[in-house]
């Protein structure tokens, strides 16, 4: 009996990891056990750091220290990220001062900015800086800071100090995990703090992320969902995730879908 229980827990953890998130009734049906048994299993699995419990279920949790590199992320959902970037372009106006966070979707957005005649771009991304360095009509400001090679982001006290000295109209924020209970999360504590500084320096916070980030929880908390004003995402997002965001007052735009 004990062997069967441990096998069930192992398979339950794998199921949540593969799906990203799962509800208690779903797991009870999947493994043919009672909901009380599922809740007990989820508690044990959370204690073993194999998943994270949420209200009504559980979500996958990224293992600290295994964050994909910038180039690895670029290969994932590339078409969706480019579509999100094209959609985000329509929310930028001549004369805006914007912050581009370090991420693959914001990198694609930078590629579309070169036709602007009057635009100020602040960034902590070396990839964005490289993309815009020859764009003569764009005033480009770099935060400085310590380079995280995994994300090509400038982070830490120097970056935070310079970000704290400015105010921008719009922040285009990248993230690793979006969850209704855990909020916005990312694997690295130092980068999470720099992202929080960006949020505090911005009048409007626009989250640009593909659907795979929803239901994911990483190590370091960045912000509550309620701190985001607008989310631009691809059509792979679930109706439940849309409802969770709209319940927090977030405008949701599906890239490629008519308004």
Topology:
Layout: H1 2-19, E1 21-23, H2 24-31, H3 35-47, E2 52-54, E3 57-61, H4 70-74, H5 78-89, E4 97-100, H6 104-111, E5 119-123, H7 126-132, E6 138-142, E7 146-148, E8 153-155, H8 157-164, E9 168-173, E10 177-179, E11 183-186, H9 189-200, E12 202-208, E13 216-217, E14 220-223, E15 230-233, H10 239-247, E16 251-254
Parallel strand pairs: 3-13, 4-5, 4-9, 5-6, 9-12, 12-15, 15-16
Antiparallel strand pairs: 1-3, 2-3, 7-8, 10-11, 11-14
Helix pairs in contact: 2-3, 5-6, 6-7, 8-9
| Run of helices and strands | HEHHEEHHEHEHEEEHEEEHEEEEHE
Low-confidence stretches: none
The count of helical stretches stands at: 10
* Amino-to-carboxy terminus distance: 54 Å
What is the SS-derived class? alpha/beta
Strand ordering within the main sheet? 6-5-4-9-12-15-16
Largest sheet: 7 strands, parallel
Could you tell me the strand content as a percent range? 25-35%
Gross geometry: elongated
Radius of gyration based on Cα positions: 20 Å
Count of extended strands: 16
Q: What would the average pLDDT be, to the nearest integer?
A: 90
Helix % is 25-40%
Question: Can you describe what's shown?
Answer:
The chain is α/β, with parallel strands linked by helices and 259 residues long. Helices cover 39% and strands 25% of the residues. Strands 6-5-4-9-12-15-16 form a 7-stranded parallel beta sheet, with helices on both faces. Strands 1, 2, 3 and 13 form a 4-stranded mixed beta sheet that branches. β2 and β3 (57-61) form a beta hairpin. α2 (24-31) crosses α3 (35-47), α5 (78-89) crosses α6 and α6 (104-111) runs parallel beside α7 (126-132).
């Amino acid at each position: 009996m004990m062997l069967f229980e441990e096998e069930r827990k192992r398979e339950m953890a794998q199921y949540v990891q593969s799906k990203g998130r799962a509800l208690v009734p779903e797991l009870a049906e999947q493994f043919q056990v009672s909901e009380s048994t599922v809740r007990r299993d989820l508690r044990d699995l959370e204690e073993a750091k194999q998943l994270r419990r949420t209200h009504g279920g559980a979500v996958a949790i990224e293992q600290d220290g295994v964050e994909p590199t910038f180039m690895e992320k670029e290969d994932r959902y590339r078409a969706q990220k480019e579509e999100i970037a094209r959609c985000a372009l329509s929310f930028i106006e001549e004369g805006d001062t914007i912050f581009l966070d370090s991420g693959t979707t914001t990198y694609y957005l930078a590629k579309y900015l070169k036709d602007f005649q009057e635009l100020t771009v602040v960034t902590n991304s070396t990839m964005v800086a490289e993309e815009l360095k020859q764009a003569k009509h764009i005033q480009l400001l770099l935060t400085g800071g310590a380079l995280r090679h995994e994300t090509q982001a400038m982070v830490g006290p120097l970056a935070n100090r310079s970000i704290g000295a400015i105010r921008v109209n719009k922040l285009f924020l990248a993230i690793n995990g979006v969850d209704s209970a855990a909020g916005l999360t990312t694997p690295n504590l130092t980068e999470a703090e720099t992202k929080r500084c960006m949020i505090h320096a911005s009048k409007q916070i626009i989250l640009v992320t593909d659907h795979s980030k929803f239901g994911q929880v990483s190590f370091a908390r960045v912000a509550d969902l309620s701190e985001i004003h607008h989310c631009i995402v691809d059509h792979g997002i679930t109706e439940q995730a849309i409802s969770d965001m709209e319940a927090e007052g977030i405008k949701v735009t599906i890239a490629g879908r008519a308004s």
